[in-house]
Amino acid sequence: MSLYPEELIREVQNRADIVEIVSDYVSLKKRGENYVGLCPFHSEKTPSFTISPKKQLFYCFGCGTGGNIFSFLMKKENWTFPEAVRWLAERVGVRLPEEGTWGKVSEAFKQKREILEINRLAAEFFHQNLIKTAEGKRAREYLANRGITSETVEKFFLGYAPPRWDGLIRFMRSKGVRDDSLLKAGLVIPRSDGKGYYDRFRDRVIFPIKDITGNTVGFGGRILGEGEPKYLNSPETTVFTKREQLYGLPMIKKGGSNLILVEGYMDCISLHQNGFTQTVASLGTSLTEQQAKILKRYSEEVIIAYDADTAGQSATLRGIEILVKEGLKVRVLSLPEGKDPDEFIRTRGKDAFAEQLSSARNFVDYKLDLAGRGLDLKTRDGKIKFIKNAISVLAGIENRVERELYVQKLSEELNIPRQALYEEINKIIDRTTLPNIGSKYKNSQLRDNNKELTRFKALSGVRKAERDILRMMIEDDSARDKIMKNLTPNNFVDTKHRKIAEMIFEMVNRNEVVTPNGISIKLKDDQETAAELANILMETADIENSMVDALINRVKENYLKLAIKKIKNEINQAEKIGEVKKAFSLLNTYHRLKLEIEQLKRDSSRKGGT
Ligand SMILES: [Zn+2]
């Protein structure tokens, strides 16, 4: 049973574009009629995840996951079908029946939505407190002193948490929000005596953190006066996972200019205000793999602009590793010692910052620069140390051409034969990377071969015929009529195919229009069949109209063969236990099937079919 009328679900799906929604999760490239990308459901290096915008379906040829936009959201977000419908409906602006009628939505989903709503209210409270109250004056002055304009305050919806223990708690109570809900949202902390709660954020400038869809998922707060910690974030909640969020993410554009990655909220805001609108902050100093994956959806290149202090430097090095591993091009902005991007742009202006950006160095140059820092290259000792450091940097370059170029450069600069450098580099590579890469390569090669083989086997012969028939039934009205006159759903031997055929027969009998969407919605409770449907429809090779008869015969012949085999067994069984009457009646069926299959064979040989 569906919670929503099917027309409504179809309406939601018709308004949504699977390419647009999925590209929030996967970086997609156009290939022919379709889009391809790296599959979010299994680990791969070459894209086998395919989306057909025309059919509004996706299918991964690597792991076999597939279906419509709802299947995608259910898998990716771990939602139930009604949850996926609800979310998508909101996104595309379709009104669904109100609460109560969607009672089956899971508790976890409801709780998430409750927390998001509380966060929205809290952001509003902090914001009003900043711009309108007497209490907010100090925070307004603080921001003004740092050059933050009121437009920027609005754009980032900055706020101020009052210097009281229960400012937010009181406000929320007046809105009917319970204290324990605030705890789940991470906005309050239990008192140590166990009696009630107090506000987590007090006397702080508040930075609401939004996810890609614009929901406020958490907060960052900077202390106004003295005090520790200087910056405080929301704790992890069901809607806030710090390692998966980036501050400023909803503001940046896909395929725009290169991304600038900064450490802090103020850096991010300040750069945006000065026109560098492709800036995000990593919420703390160490970039995570998940954040790098998100960045990759937006751009091919990231410029790291962390603080120019020791902590910033080691964060930069870690960031480089992670970004390079995700296949991103990385450059590093080097600001004068001790400066952060916000300070730099305030004191030197945006033109100077733009200049710094354009001269940001490739990460290898940056690392080589660090490798020589503090060493006197004029001395023999210094030179040897530098070479040692530099070699381990070069050994880390995966691209051989790039490595070659750096070896050349280094050999000229230091006046050392290239061969000598190579020998040292190769020692490191042999020791670390090669055995790993080797075995990984072999394994994946083996796996791929097996995969190919099973796919080939599975698709050969009858299964392929069944799939082609189903595709024709969905895509070609005249072929469908012919097929329905000659086959029944029972003739499909593969259970998934039989199920799809049943759906199509049912739709035609009810005078419904047969569309990929229509069928895939009906398959919402059977994601395996939904994936098979997507796979079938991803096939683009044309089927000649003249093939219909041959395909029908192939499917039917296979069905008859199996039916005859089955009935033979039953006859044997009946004879064994002496059920003569039953054996006779089975024998009748047997002869009928035999006649049918012979007729079929005669027909197809006359038509020159299979
Ligand atoms: Zn996959």
Summary, kept brief:
With 610 residues, the protein is α+β, with helices and mostly antiparallel strands.
Key features?
610 residues; alpha+beta; DNA Primase, Chain A; DNA primase DNAg catalytic core, N-terminal domain; 5 domains; five-stranded antiparallel β-sheet; 56% helix; globular; binds zinc ion; DNA-directed RNA polymerase; DNA-directed RNA polymerase activity
Question: In the residues, how many domains can be counted?
Answer: 5
- Helix percentage: 55-70%
**Which CATH first-tier class of the largest domain would you pick?**
Mainly Alpha
The fourth-level CATH homologous superfamily of the largest domain is: DNAb Helicase, Chain A
Sheet with the most strands: spatial strand order: 1-2-3-4-5
Instruction: Name the beta content range.
Output: 5-15%
Question: What is the CATH architecture term of the largest domain?
Answer: Orthogonal Bundle
Rg: 32 Å
EC number: 2.7.7.101
Pfam family, one: DnaB
Catalytic activity: ssDNA + n NTP = ssDNA/pppN(pN)n-1 hybrid + (n-1) diphosphate
Subunit structure: Monomer. Interacts with DnaB.
